[in-house]
């Protein structure tokens, strides 16, 4: 198992065109999927087995499921699971040519916190999850569900951000009196792992208590680059979970706050 701690470097200025190498990492980035999957495979060996089936929990629009099959051509069945039907609809239409046989993919609606839609797969041998667990409010329940679904001797690998400077920005906005009235509860937006600064020791203990035997459990610091501050600001605006409910007068202040939080993050490095 591996978790990921995301954070950032470098300095941004108010000039939206200034070139920079840094900040705030996209939640759905899959560019770290390949090294993670290779490391997971070294422990679980799903890629080397002919006819293996792998479940991808929180598959989103299918990027992680397709990446999995492209990296390990021996896999002959990928079950992508997501709670959002709209993501699954895109995933079903998205099969890229490099993934080989599109018939091996099955995209299923399911909830890893409650098990809804998933009990039919009880006894599965391999489960992976890429950047989904950071979105979960009830992580412990979800880990327990993965344990329930696995067959004896089966394995799971999880990659997710435990802390992100992006969440500092959201927390900063949520704490502001003018913003609070337009937003949902903070706990719905900021993951517990970020708020409580969980590290690998927390997850090692939690997973051992659930009944997992830990192969690897580690946090790593990673950095993302944006071509310029304007690009970063656009990403932050697009990904704000409550943007529809904010009046434009408040929304227009987000880019500057995003830049400031990024600068604070960079100056800590
Ligand atoms: C950041 S996306 C990651 C998508 C994909 N794994 C990737 O790497 O591109 C996280 C996904 O987890 C899904 N998700 C959130 N809560 C879930 C739950 N309880 N059960 C299943 N999927 C969930 C979201 O709908 C979202 O599509």
UniProtKB/TrEMBL annotation:
Give the matching Pfam families: Methyltransf_25 (PF13649)
Keywords, alphabetical: Methyltransferase, Transferase
- Domain named Methyltransferase is located at 54-154
Asked if the record carries the keyword Methyltransferase, the reply is: yes
**InterPro entries, alphabetized:** Methyltransf_25, SAM-dependent_MTases_sf
Q: Which CDD domains match?
A: AdoMet_MTases
Protein's UniProt name: Juvenile hormone acid O-methyltransferase like protein
Organism of origin: Argiope bruennichi
């Amino acid at each position: 198992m591996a978790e990921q701690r995301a954070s950032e470097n470098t300095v941004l200025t108010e000039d939206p065109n200034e070139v920079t190498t840094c900040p705030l990492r996209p939640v759905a980035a899959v560019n770290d999927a390949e090294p993670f999957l290779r490391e997971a495979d070294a422990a679980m060996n799903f890629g080397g087995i002919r006819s293996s089936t792998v479940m991808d929990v929180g598959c989103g629009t299918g990027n992680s499921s397709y990446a999995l099959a492209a990296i390990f051509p021996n896999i002959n069945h990928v079950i992508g699971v997501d709670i959002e039907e709209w993501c699954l609809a895109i995933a079903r239409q998205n099969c890229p040519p490099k993934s080989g046989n599109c018939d091996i993919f099955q995209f299923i609606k399911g909830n890893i916190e409650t098990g809804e839609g998933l009990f039919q797969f009880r006894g599965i041998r391999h489960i992976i999850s890429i950047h989904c667990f950071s979105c979960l409010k009830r992580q412990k329940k979800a880990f327990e569900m993965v344990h329930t679904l696995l067959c004896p001797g089966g394995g799971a690998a999880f990659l997710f951000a435990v802390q992100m400077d992006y969440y500092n920005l959201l927390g900063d906005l949520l704490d502001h009196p003018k913003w609070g009235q337009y937003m949902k509860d903070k706990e719905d937006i900021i993951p517990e792992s970020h708020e409580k600064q969980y590290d690998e020791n927390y997850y090692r203990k939690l997973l051992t208590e659930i009944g997992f035997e830990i192969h690897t459990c580690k946090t790593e610091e990673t950095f993302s680059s944006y071509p310029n501050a304007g690009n970063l600001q656009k990403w932050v605006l697009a990904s704000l979970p409550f943007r529809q409910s904010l009046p434009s007068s408040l929304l227009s202040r987000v880019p500057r706050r995003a830049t400031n939080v990024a600068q604070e993050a960079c100056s800590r490095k």
